[in-house]
Amino acid sequence: DAHHSGDWEYSFNDHFDGVMLGTGSEIVNVDLLRKLDKQKLTKEQRIVGTLFVRQHAQQFKVQRFKVNIGMQWVNFYVDSLEDHKRVSKIAEHVSSLNNQNIKSFIQKYPLYGCSQKTPPQEIGMEKLFIHPEKLTAVMSSENGDMDTSYPVSVELSLTMRCNFDCVWCSDKDLRASMDDDIDLELLHNLFKDLSEHGTQGVVIEGGGEPTIYRDFDGVLDLLDKFKLGKGLITNGSTALKPHRLERFDWIRISLDSSTPEEHHKLKAFDGFERVLGNINSYAQHCPIVGVGYVVTNQNMGDIETLVLRLKQFGVTYIQFRPVVDHSNLLPSIDLDYLKRYQSENFSVIIDGMKENIVTGNNDLPCKANSLTSVITADGGVYFCGRLNIYPWVKPIGNLHQESFNQIWTGDERKQQHEKALDKNFCGKYCPQCRLTKFNELFNRISSLKTRNFI
Question: In the sheet that 317-322 helps form, which strands lie side by side, from edge to edge?
């Protein structure tokens, strides 16, 4: 009202964080935008936008308001009709709109707001700092030496059988060529080898659905015996008993759908609510339960409702990443708005939407190849879990013929390692890969000139 009652071109508050953190408002007249467009502004001046107007207030009709509040606590987002309803509800029920009253209201009705505290980040490059010896070994490979220190964790397929048929499944072709379940005695020798040489954890995951493996508890017993950490990636179709859930360090459910219709269409499984019920149960008995979400142009119909439900279940995080190897399903969507649902105990992880779309390893050599290893249900050990989309890329060995140690230090791995350090090879053949961001980090470290200064 104050803006429109005067002949102002631009009005704003003078709080130090201004509009960017939701502590006030700014109003810009169309005439001002036309006036700015006629000026010969530099690229930098155009980027800073209204900050340029504030710093040159004498050239324009600017109204400045005083704001006598301290550090902001509440950010207001009005990006959608749903946001407008929530902000209206706060305005309706909070008699005096100050930080403390709004804070008290949101604490009483948490769905109307989100915490500004940093939530947990269980997925990210920060974990490298926990394993400095491995980081040193990886960096030494830039000289052509193969890192023979064991992977921090390995990705293990127990079976190639699956009760889902996901449209984008990267293991579908591999599954068609083998129908094995891995042998328990072979796992005994593998876990013993891994434990003795420094591997910290085993991720039980696809080829197929691991929870339908015939002796699932036997695998957990062996992992306990050799003191290896346990992670599980599952489609969530199996109701696991509390005593099983409590044995895992973490579980991630590949949900990839926000409605029953999407789940049936994209995963060929009519059991969306069944999976959600299992996720709720998992979250009550396992310390870290996350949800993986492959984003396509066909599965975002009711994503906000899904995120809210998962948050209520007590899920630790939801991780979004783009579909790979299926260009017809690629989405065009910005998920930043979902960050508003974060809290101190719940993360919305969208980093992969940008990090995981880079092809060709960004024309860098792959030094990160030794961070993990992929073992399939037929005993095959793969140098890379993504290059196996090519039929000419063979496993570096098989556990039915050699020990993991023999394979990990063997000639076939050396040959594939040499190719991986060739940036031209990576640039030509590497598909989208989660390890690219690690290689980008290693490249930045290698390029540092002032290493002895923080």
Answer: 347-349, 317-322, 289-295, 250-254, 229-234, 201-205, 153-157, 372-375, 380-382, 397-398
